[in-house]
Amino acid sequence: MSLDAEPTLDLTDLRGGVGTLGEPATLFARDVGAWFGDHSVLEGVTLEMPARTVTALIGPSGCGKSTFLRILNRMHELVPDASLTGEVLLDGVDIYGNDVKATETRRKIGMVFQKPNPFPAMSIYENVVSGIKLSGMRVASTDDVVEQSLQRAGLWNEVKNRLQSPGGALSGGQQQRLCIARSLAVEPEVLLMDEPCSALDPTSTYRIEQTIKELENQVTIVIVTHNMQQAQRVSDQCAFFLVDEGEPGSIVEIGSTETIFNHPSDPRTADYVNGRFG
Questions:
Q1: Which residues contact 55 (CB under 8 A, 6 or more apart)?
Q2: Cβ distance 189 to 109 under 8 Å?
């Protein structure tokens, strides 16, 4: 669909003016397995990600965390020869159900990637509203959506006087917050983040973490991170993934962040969070 296409879904009068589409939702993965061709990469993953919480997926590289994240908004199926088993429920509805559209799932469950990916030929303003136009949404005022989304992403005060400047001209940390704003503009119920700070400097990382904490009561967040200090700072619960040689990845332990870091039940969890491997 062209970015200039006429939006078709009227959101006016939903929660007044700009409108939001729904409350933060609970995601529940039940017995999820994943393959790339004949290669099994995940097995038996069951995890509840409650509404209005930040869930951190931790574990060494190659244990299936990012694959699992992509399963949560139906990006896994875009990979040739990829397949999966199990269920992913969004407030009780199977997102892989026959009557559920992948595009609608990806609107409700947004994704922020490891590397900031604003549309370089678009202005800051156009980047924020691009998702609205692509998803066919109608809003009362795009100006209001842009301001609200940039405020929620912690970027408004830095860019409000240059909204027509190219998004690609922003710093790395600002670009990542612009991508968060772009995702928030379509009012997702869940926001997935795949190592959103791995390419950023400490100051930008701190600002992204502040944004995550500010968004916690507005949207359910699931974040993949290799930074154990970051997981402690931003998350409410953690799921520790691990893979044995020749075996698919799986979850070793799930618990509150405080429990995982201070009182884990599995010695492998204690070894990982204390930096003894990984």
A1: 47, 49, 221, 222, 223, 235, 236, 237, 238, 239
A2: yes
Chain-centroid distance of CA 145 in Å reads 20
pLDDT tens, residue by residue, 154-211: 999 999 999 999 999 999 999 999 999 999 999 999 999 999 999 899 999 999 999 9
The CA-based angle 69-196-254, given to 5 degrees, is: 45
> For the whole model, what pTM was predicted?
0.89
Report H helices in 23-123. 65-71, 102-108
Tell me the torsion sign for CA atoms 20, 16, 181, 135: positive
At the fourth CATH level, the homologous superfamily of domain 9-273 is: P-loop containing nucleotide triphosphate hydrolases (3.40.50.300)
The pLDDT value recorded for residue 11 is: 33
Separation CA 210–CA 190 (nearest Å): 18
Confidence (pLDDT) at 110: 94
Q: How many residues does the chain have?
A: 278
Taking the chain, what is the end-to-end CA distance rounded to the nearest angstrom? 43
Contact at 8 Å (CB) between 209 and 54? no
Residues 6+ apart with CB under 8 A from 229: none
At residue 128, φ and ψ (nearest 5 deg) are -65, -40
Measured CA to CA, the distance from residue 78 to residue 70 in angstroms comes to: 10
